[in-house]
Amino acid sequence: MYYEDASEFDLSKVRAYGGVNVYYQTDPLKNGGAGTVYLKPFSQQYGNLIIDNRNISTSGYSTTLPFIGQGFSTSLEPHCLTNTNANWKPNSLIGIKLNPYPNGENVFTVIGNDSTKIYTEPSEGDMTQISQSGYPYIGENYVFDLTVKGKARVFTSDRIKIFGALTVESGSTLKAENIER
């Protein structure tokens, strides 16, 4: 949810419920992922991500954040990284940051993708100035606050960069390639 002013609204009441299977309520293998809420005031560069499973037990990491993952580019252009071995869901990576040289700090915002190509925001620079074809890459998710609660079990193979607070309540789990605060 993007908003200008929430002064007359209680954002703590915004909820997205996870998926409990009503036919198998006692079997965590049958339950779905946690409810996920993204709150972003226009005045803030990054939003707040809340992942809440409402104390519903699940098996494994039931909530996977969208991710670019790690790999090696097969082609690199100023605003397009190609990995012919990838199988990304088209336009599922928009807004995630792409780091075309994981040992460096430069990231580029994804503005679109197909199954093997990622397109980045041209105004953020030329990726070929810091990397080249055949080099590794990784995705990075940027958030202000990140809250994982209610037995949520969250996974991403990308890095997560948190500019505000990280809260992982007891009984909940967060697994990422790297978590930077």
How many domains make up the coordinates? Answer: 2
Give a short account of the largest sheet.
Answer: 9 strands, mixed
Q: Would you tell me the overall average pLDDT?
A: 91
From the N-terminal CA to the C-terminal CA, the straight-line distance is 23 Å
Q: Estimate what percentage of residues fall within beta strands.
A: 35-45%
The structural class is mainly beta
* Count of separate DSSP helical elements: 0
Q: Rounded to an integer, what's the Rg over CA atoms?
A: 18 Å
Order of helices and strands: EEEEEEEEEEEEEEEEE
**Morphology:** globular
- Beta strand count: 17
Poorly predicted tracts of residues: none
Helix content: under 10%
Task: Report what the structure shows.
With 181 residues, this protein is an all-beta fold. The protein has 2 domains: 2-65 and 142-180, no CATH class; 70-139. It has no helices and 17 strands. The model has no long low-confidence stretch (mean pLDDT 91).
